[in-house]
């Protein structure tokens, strides 16, 4: 198979690229290198089955230039990270809306299946324990910039759904819950690489808010094979799937664990949300997936624990 991966130089995209090449497939990676980097692809540059194209998903000509001979598309390219969304809200909204529309158009024109990466963020402030794919979305004001990411991704899902229903496009939508692992950078806000970097530097770990908010983190090596399995499974087309772990931690506990695992002398600094993200910021207090649907579809069952994840990120940062 020859796959197009948008966002192929990003954190998840680069792991997916390696995984597919390892299975003997060919990969074309389209990336504008806004948050992704060629360093992420160092292990595959020069591989006979790999081609990198620098370009934006917002540019239909760039997208079209990648489509020749493509059998299926993973659309992962997006403006990501809370800091990115807050710093460049309008650009991010455009990328996340128009980029997806362009990819859906291209997939339709070439009649190839497409996996669209959405996000667990679309559930917003719904704190139900075990969010199923049909759970309600509880989203704050459209004038609060944080929610623009969730809004764009939700509209992407609706677009994908309508392309499937109205045009018969073969689509799969996934909602990853806090995917982490080697190569993820903390520069755009993601908490685990930030804590690990701070701990290794002996700096205080910045816990935003009271630290009692919870998340479930899932190793990228558990997520990537699931993406491939879903896009390879015709009976998954037209559906949406949560992908995540159910091992919960509060952010305060996470900070303590990172300090213990690194043997760091760092302290923990509580930082008010306003200071971290600006005035009016709303966080999600709890976000736990129910992944029964993905389990029943492809046997999805993450095997890496939070300790495994922290160890992997620490090893990555140290190297
Ligand atoms: N967070 C934190 N310190 C940091 C970065 C993030 O306490 O230096 C918190 C953030 O406010 C959120 C949680 O960690 O409650 C997860 O943040 P991340 O941006 O990684 O993911 P998301 O908010 O999208 O779940």
From TrEMBL:
Gene Ontology cellular-component annotations: cytoplasm
Pfam families on file: Epimerase
Gene Ontology terms, MF aspect: NAD+ binding; UDP-glucuronate decarboxylase activity
Keyword annotations: Decarboxylase, Lyase, NAD
Sequence ranges assigned to domain NAD-dependent epimerase/dehydratase in this UniProt record: 4-244
Protein name: UDP-glucose 4-epimerase
Keyword NAD carried by entry: yes
Cofactor(s) in the UniProt record: NAD(+)
Presence of the UniProt keyword NAD in the record: yes
Organism name: Amycolatopsis saalfeldensis
Source taxon at top rank: Bacteria
One annotated GO biological process: D-xylose metabolic process
InterPro entries: Epimerase_deHydtase, NAD(P)-bd_dom_sf, UXS-like
